Hints:
2 domains; two-stranded antiparallel sheet; mainly alpha; single chain
Amino acid sequence: MRSLTRFVRAQRGASLAAGAVVTFLLVLFFSLAFGWVNPLASVAALFLAGLLGGYVTGPGARRGATAAFIGALVGGALAVAGLIVIITSGIYPLPFVPENPSALEVAGLVAAAVLPALFFATVGGMIGGILRERRERALAPPPSLAVTRCEHCGAPLPSEAVYCPQCGVRRL
Length: 172
């Protein structure tokens, strides 16, 4: 029993890590694809990244939100690092960034980019976890159709059977 508990905990940790990695990769991809050009597309992309990360993580809003938050935090940090390089170097002029911004202005731009990203990815992760939970509940067999085995011959028995349909022995 103890090894089964360890296995389940390891699987939960692995699925949480998988959800965080999926969210991280999608946030990076969407940040590169949409960049900072269209804010509405970026919000939708971050929500989608969180949704998919939460769905991969497994059932439950809390698990999905946690994985999406971690992935968005790491992916957002890398995207923001790229944004800071773009802002400070002047390689690509962004319309909403003043020339030679101060450290406070850069920090404000970073906060304006990261906080909505975390919010929308986390909400997406919550919804993804809820969708996964609903799907697993819908696919689970009803308890009345659970199959047990006959102790005499080993044939499958429906839970409501009194006698074994194979050998006729009364069920205990």
